[in-house]
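Notes from hallway chat w/ T.B., transcribed later so I don't forget. T.B. wanted the structure written out for a chain they're using in a teaching module, and asked if we could keep both sequence and structure tokens in one place. Agreed to drop them here.
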Amino acid sequence: MEVTLVSGARTVPEDVRALAESKIGKLGKLTPVLEHAEVRFSDDPKAPLGSRNVCEVKIDGHGHTLRAKASARDPATSVDRVVDKLEHQVERLKGKLVGRSQPRRHGFSGRSDAS
């Protein structure tokens, strides 16, 4: 998965950038239909002092879009929170895709015995 990091007027430490790239890159291995992720770091001036660092992630691929946003005291924690949210969304997407490719039969044998 291709991961793009965007930060507005603020600078994000290299260790947080590496953490975001590695954790979000691993999400692409869970569902191969996801191709591109955009990670955006920003400050929320209206938020309380404890949760000013905001991490927003948008993942696209094959007509599917996943989005998550989390805020925390430090950027690394906001990355962890947003990855937790996205893991849940990826698991749901994977279940839907598998369900479409392997429909349940519910007693249908595939033959029609009209005799």
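Follow-up for T.B.: The chain is about 40% helix and 30% strand. Might be a good example for the class.
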